[in-house]
Design goal:
The chain has 91 residues and is α+β, with helices and mostly antiparallel strands. It has four helices and four strands, in the order αβαβααββ.
Length: 91
């Protein structure tokens, strides 16, 4: 019950969660486009990680650069996921 209450409070404040996955390098741009407003993004890197470590590193560098430029935050969640947070969210 508490989880539903927490989500309802976020909805009331206009905070939105989005889930995405990066399977290929072209998906990095799609994730960058999703970064706006009060969105919290949970991004799975596992699909690209299974294909190529080099592509994964490149995708993470691209995401990190864009996140810093836009004033957002980037955090590792574990299990191949990263969290992208709006500027006002501290972690």
């Amino acid at each position: 019950m508490q989880k539903q209450t927490y989500i309802a409070q976020l909805d009331d404040k206009g905070i939105e969660f989005r889930f995405a996955k990066i399977e290929k390098l072209a998906d990095v741009q799609r994730v960058k486009d999703e970064m706006r407003g009060d969105r919290i993004l949970i991004v799975s890197m596992l699909p690209i990680l299974k294909k190529s470590l080099e592509q994964t590193e490149y995708a993470l560098r691209e995401l990190h650069s864009h996140v810093v430029d836009e004033g957002f935050g980037l955090a590792r969640m574990g299990q191949g996921r990263v969290l992208i947070l709006p500027p006002y969210v501290r972690f």
